[in-house]
Write a structure and sequence with these properties.
Length: about 300
């Protein structure tokens, strides 16, 4: 039995659902016998749904094999089989957050400029605060004064502590001090923000590696989670971002943002298929409450609901 999707998830995927499911329903009206021509039309349409060509090829190979084996004979059965394939493509047994032997849980957050990183950190903070966890934020994006200011506002609003320094300070030193503060204050979760950067900026990627090393020296096993924030609007470009960031960081999870504002949410399927990193969270709105733990079954069911 699939995990029940929430009304918020269903609403957040409305634009993607309209693009993916709307076209498929026109091609595969319920109650018809399946044939090769319909399957070809289905494949051609999926190429336009931001799922990604490599993923579409894998999906359609399985659909064709099932039709050849007579496992599916009708459009209704084809839809159910497609859902099953997509769940398999997207599923992972590593979607849960790591639980360290002793607190704090340290989460390092990275992403390109404009991906929604600061808002996503606020959502993570809210997620943990709702579970009665004491949270500390580290404002290691020292390049932009606005970034520190925004994070400070969120910390005040959500009841979290924050460690920050003046603009231009060494980001690794902020992470260093935050690790000391996290232990001294007995916090449950330390979330470390970093400056937005393009995955092609080698010097900034090296800086990320330095921050990671500093955290690891201060707290054994940390960072326990390294989350990459990806904007769902970027579609297939998000795959390249994840692959490049993965070369510099040992990514443990992806946080897909802005799903509510795009029809390109199908990219989540391709991202999950082509990047060997589980999606752990999705953002489906502007407010701090608009965060969902990712569940492949619930996601697909909401998409086809």
């Amino acid at each position: 039995m699939f995990k029940k999707f929430t009304a918020k998830l269903k609403a957040g995927l409305a634009k993607t659902k309209k693009k993916v499911l709307g076209g498929l329903k026109a091609i595969l009206p319920f109650g018809r016998d399946l044939d090769d021509e319909l399957i070809d039309e289905m494949e051609n349409y999926l190429y336009t749904a931001d799922i990604g060509p490599r993923t579409v090829q894998v999906v359609m190979e399985q659909v064709r094999q099932a039709y050849k084996d007579r496992t599916i004979k009708t459009t209704d059965e084809c839809f159910e089989h497609l859902k099953s394939i997509l769940k398999g493509v997207m599923s992972s047994d590593k979607t849960s957050l790591v639980t360290p032997q002793q607190p704090p849980l340290v989460i390092l957050v990275a992403g390109v400029n404009g991906s929604g990183k600061t808002t996503s950190i606020a959502k993570l903070c809210k997620y943990f605060r709702d579970r009665d966890k004491k949270v500390l934020l580290a404002a290691a994006d020292t390049f932009r004064a606005a970034a520190v200011e925004q994070l400070t506002i969120w910390a005040d609003r959500l009841g979290a502590d924050i460690v920050k320094k003046q603009q231009g300070a060494d980001p690794a030193s902020v992470a260093f001090d935050a690790c000391d503060a996290a232990r001294a204050r007995g916090v449950d979760v330390l979330i470390v923000d970093t400056a937005g950067r393009l995955h092609t900026q080698k010097n900034l990627m090296q800086e990320l590696e330095k921050i990671r090393r500093v955290i690891g020296k201060k707290i054994e096993g940390a960072p326990h989670e390294t989350l990459l924030i990806l904007d769902a609007n970027n579609g297939q470009n998000a795959i390249a971002q994840a692959q490049e960031f993965g070369k510099s960081l040992e990514l443990t999870g992806l946080f897909l943002t802005k799903l509510d504002g795009t029809a390109k949410g199908g990219a989540v399927i391709g991202i999950r298929h082509q990047v060997d990193v589980p999606v752990k969270f999705i953002g489906i709105g502007e407010s701090a409450e608009d965060i969902e733990e990712f569940d492949a079954d619930a996601f697909v069911e909401a998409l086809f609901a």
